Amino acid sequence: MYSGTWQIHTVTPRGEPCDTVLYLHGGGWVHEAAPAHWRWVQRLAAEAQMQVVMPAYPLVQARRTAATVVPRVAQLAARTERPLVLMGHSAGGGPSPCPPP
Q: Which pLDDT tens digits describe the chain residue by residue (101 residues)?
């Protein structure tokens, strides 16, 4: 799925998810999600029975910074229908505490 120019990946557990995690991968704002991030997202969805949404946010090479990413993360968070957990790893942990508008 796409939201504007961002590709949004959603991993859903078997059965009905109880909540949603909006997960921002690490990578120093330079690297895309690594295989370890994908394994973590799949495990989190399966073991916690949560839907995990992981946006492929723009990186520094595309002249993007936290100032451009954080407002879009807040928009994604605001559109979530279930209780929401914001989670980030490494560089993705920076914008993850942004509250929905």
A: 555 677 889 999 998 888 999 988 877 666 778 888 899 999 999 999 999 998 887 666 566 666 777 788 888 888 887 788 888 776 566 655 555 44
CA distance 88 to 90: 7
28 DSSP 8-state letter: T
As a whole number of angstroms, the distance between CA 40 and CA 48 comes to: 11
Instruction: Classify 40 as helix, strand or coil.
Output: helix
pTM over 0.90: no
d(CA 26, CA 32): 8
